[in-house]
TrEMBL record:
Record bears the keyword Membrane: yes
UniProt keyword list: Coiled coil, Membrane, Transmembrane, Transmembrane helix
Residues that span the membrane, as ranges: 12-34
Lineage: Bacteria, Bacillati, Actinomycetota, Coriobacteriia, Eggerthellales
Entry keyword annotation includes Transmembrane helix: yes
Taxonomic source organism: Berryella intestinalis
Coiled coil: 86-113
Domain of life the protein comes from: Bacteria
Listed name of the protein: CMP-2-keto-3-deoxyoctulosonic acid synthetase
Length: 262
């Protein structure tokens, strides 16, 4: 009997608790419905503000906040600064370039004058320009670049197909540096070795004493310098007699013919 009474009490308590929960649920639903029907309410605004706050980036704090402030200040300062005046720097660069160009021009003029003087001195020392032998005059007044360009082409044409082929510029540069007729050394190579085809010593295409070299680049320079030092500006009967005493006339005639063909 007592057991039955306790059971009834538990059932009644459960019913009461369920009724309370139902009432509470109805109240919540009613509140939400009222909010939806009443337009913009405080609850709605609160929800919108919270959503906005949650989507925004968190504000920097501590050291990060300080760095952000410094960057902002620097950007503001740069935006407020006036543009730098670079005209002075540009002018200085132009002056340097002009000075360098002028120095190069003066050096070139000095080089051209030196080459012309070397040739004149060599002609004066020998007392000959080549005209007496029927050779055309060499124009030294054109300057180094034009001189080398002209005589490189002419000498290369003369040496084409030979072991000395392609040495035209080397001959022309050496002639300019030593102030002698640029045709003389190439012509002797034809008389002495058929333009380097029959060298009695390595790279000695001129029957030049007992000398030998490691390349035509070296021997061309050495031979032209040797002519300038020991034989004068250009071919002459006296130079032929000194260069080839046993057969002077033939040597002279052969070398002159080659010089005329260059």
């Amino acid at each position: 009997m007592a057991s039955t009474t306790k059971q009834r009490k538990r059932v009644a308590a459960g019913s009461i608790a369920g009724a309370v929960a139902a009432v509470a649920l109805v109240g919540v639903i009613g509140l939400n419905v009222a909010s939806a029907n009443s337009g913009s309410t405080q609850a709605d605004r609160f929800g919108i503000e919270m959503a906005a706050l949650s989507s925004a980036s968190p504000a920097p704090s501590g050291a990060f906040a300080a760095e952000a402030a410094d960057a902002s200040y620097g950007a503001s300062t740069l935006s407020q600064s006036s543009p730098r005046n670079i005209a002075a720097g540009v002018s200085a660069i132009e002056e340097e370039e002009n000075a360098a160009a002028e120095a190069e021009r003066q050096a070139k003029a000095a080089e051209d004058a030196a080459g012309l003087n070397r040739a004149r001195n060599a002609m004066s020392a020998q007392g000959s320009t080549g005209a007496s032998a029927g050779l055309s005059e060499v124009d030294w007044t054109v300057g180094h670049d034009a001189f080398v360009e002209e005589w490189s082409e002419r000498i290369d044409a003369f040496l084409a197909g030979s072991p000395l082929a392609g040495q035209g510029e080397n001959f022309a540069e050496a002639a300019w540096d030593n102030g002698i007729d640029p045709r003389w050394s190439p012509a002797i190579s034809k008389t002495e070795s058929s333009r380097g085809a029959i060298c009695f010593l390595p790279y000695n295409a001129w029957g030049w004493g007992a000398s030998s070299w490691d390349s035509f680049d070296e021997s061309v320079k050495a031979h032209v310098a040797g002519l300038a030092k020991g034989y004068g500006y250009t071919l002459s009967k006296g130079a032929a007699a000194k260069y080839c005493p046993p057969n002077t006339d033939h040597w002279y005639a052969s070398t002159l013919a080659s010089m005329k063909s260059i």
